[in-house]
Structures are given as C-alpha cells and as structure tokens.
Amino acid sequence: MKVSIKNRLNERGMTQREIGKMLGISAQQMSRAVAGASGPRDIEIREQIYKILGMDEKEV
C-alpha cells in the first residue's frame, strides 16, 4: 500500500514546517522534496523525512 508523505504527516499530527525545522531546511526545500522533485538534494531530504516519519521507501 502506497503512503504519501502528506498522509503520514497528517497521521502523526505534524506539519511540513515542523519537519523542515528538524532538518534545518527552508520551506521551499521541504515543499520541493515532498512534491517529488528529483534533484540530488531533494532525494536526500526525502530520505531523511522517511526516517523521521518511520516510512519505508517501498511504501511510497
């Protein structure tokens, strides 16, 4: 079953802004990563988000 980052944030009662602060990134960087941008930094950020949210990359 596929799970989106947005859905997992809602399930955990968290916001993109909170995760962004935890990672020390801007709102724009966070938004790009969540939207699926494919730059190397976006992929790295997304992997960190998965870890924070307890997601397996295969779920996404």
Briefly summarize what is shown:
The protein is mainly alpha-helical. Helix content is 65%, strand content 0%.
Task: Describe this protein with a few key phrases.
single chain, 60 residues, mainly alpha, 4 helices, globular
Task: Provide structural commentary.
- Helix 2 crosses helix 3 and helix 3 packs across helix 4.
- This protein has four helices and no strands.
- With about 60 residues, the protein is an all-alpha fold.
Biggest β-sheet strands, sense, barrel = none
The overall average pLDDT, rounded, is 91
The fraction of residues in strands falls at under 5%
Radius of gyration: 10 Å
Distance between the termini: 8 Å
How many individual β-strands? 0
Any low-confidence stretches, pLDDT <50, length ≥5?
A: none
Kindly state the percentage of residues in helix: 55-70%
The topology string of helices and strands comes to HHHH
Number of helices: 4
Structural class: mainly alpha
Task: List the quaternary state of the chains.
Answer: single chain
Shape: globular
